[in-house]
Design brief:
Layout lengths: L3 E4 H13 L5 H16 L10 H10 L9 E5 L3 E5 L5 H19 L1 E9 L5 H10 L3 E6 L5 E2 L6 E3 L4 E5 L7 E5 L6 H9 L9 E2 L5 E2 L2 H5 L2 E2 L5 H18 L20 E8 L4 H4 L3 H12 L15 H10 L2 E4 L1 H13 L7
Parallel strand pairs: 3-4
Antiparallel strand pairs: 1-14, 2-3, 4-13, 5-8, 5-13, 6-7, 8-9, 10-11, 10-12
Helix pairs in contact: 1-2
Length: about 350
């Protein structure tokens, strides 16, 4: 993505200040800012600070509550059901992940589901919190229906992301992070903002015809990754999040970018496995590190310079950009306007 380069530290301070101006305390504002800026640093700009205007809009419209506190609804020891009470997704996820780690320490495995939830950034951001604690961590979320069943022309299920992180003795987790669609809707919105077309196979128009128009795709449907396989996984994640928590799934999850005065009503599920218990208490970090390196060292196909293990690309992007984020000029203008309206002196 082309754009103006902004120091991540400056960007983080501005995002924190914006959320503090909306009555989030400093710790909560910092949590949200860290999640969003981290996505930009890792090259996942569809889940980065481009979401700030939407978050602000929803807070002002009342569908996201800045003072809400996540609460336990059902407690079954190794399995807990919570309500986010329409808090920002990063804030309810922070509580849920901490609880999942605590319960996995007690039970070996834990499941924490969260209903009445909102967008939580990238799933990998949360799974890596588990890996940092020596655990295998799963993070799932559902979205409003975006994809048709194979051969269908009606959106039935969201692209429903999942991430799995494995702890490594190198300190660099092996991280699998993906949505169940061929691409994220955020990437299509970025293509539209830049006046670009999208690759065939990403999406359809509203009638179910394949399209390369970003605008038609936004008004249409995403296509599942790997056809029936991606669709089936998306259905499973939808039920794992929404049905298990007693929250929204399928059509009861509302559009993220529409009806901003109505709660998003998504759901999240976090699973923690205390891998430090196995192998006589030594865990699986050595195996993860060895396997990751064997992937990198595997034979390359002609024309391939580097082979990456899962999670390497995001780390490589962080190193490449050296603490700077490339933002579209239109987004910079929008963030500066929000700062001006909030009487924040800092500008990008």
């Amino acid at each position: 993505m082309t754009g103006k380069t902004v120091p991540a530290e400056t960007l983080t301070r501005l995002v924190e200040a914006l959320f503090e101006s909306l009555d989030l305390n400093q710790a909560d504002a910092s949590c949200v800012a860290e999640s969003l800026v981290s996505a930009d640093l890792e090259g996942i700009s569809s889940h980065g600070v481009s979401l700030v205007p939407l978050y602000v809009q929803r807070i002002k419209a009342g569908s996201v509550c800045v003072n809400a506190q996540p609460l336990i609804v059902e407690d079954h020891g190794g399995m807990v059901i919570m309500t986010a009470a329409n808090a920002l997704g990063q804030l309810s996820s922070k509580v849920a992940v901490k609880l999942a780690i605590e319960r996995a320490r007690q039970h070996g495995v834990s499941v924490v589901t969260v209903r009445d939830a909102f967008h939580f950034g990238t799933a990998a951001f949360w799974s890596k919190k588990f890996a940092d604690a020596g655990m295998v961590g799963f993070s799932f979320s559902n979205t409003r229906p975006l994809m048709p069943a194979p051969g269908g022309a009606q959106a039935m299920v969201g692209n429903n992301p999942m991430a799995i992180a494995f702890p490594s003795t190198t300190g660099e987790a092996l991280v699998v992070d993906m949505a169940m669609s061929a691409t994220a809707m955020g990437k299509i919105r970025l293509a539209q903002a830049q006046g670009q077309s999208i690759p065939a196979g990403w999406a359809t128009d509203a009638q179910g015809n394949s399209t390369t128009s970003a605008t038609e795709a936004i008004n249409g449907m995403l296509l599942p990754a790997a056809g029936p396989k991606g669709f089936g996984l998306a259905v499973a994640v939808d039920l794992l999040c929404g049905a298990l928590s007693g929250g929204g799934f399928g059509a009861s999850v509302r559009p993220l970018y529409g009806d901003v005065d109505q709660p998003y009503n998504c759901a999240h599920t976090f699973i923690a496995i205390d891998a430090s218990r196995v192998a006589g208490g030594t865990g699986i970090g050595t195996q993860v590190a060895t396997f990751s390196q064997s992937i990198r060292d595997s034979h390359r196909a002609p024309g391939t310079e580097t082979i990456y293990a899962p999670g390497d690309l995001e780390r490589a992007n962080r190193q490449k950009i050296a603490g700077n984020c490339a933002l579209l000029p239109t987004l910079i203008d929008e963030l500066n306007e929000l700062a001006k309206a909030a009487k924040i002196g800092l500008r990008l």
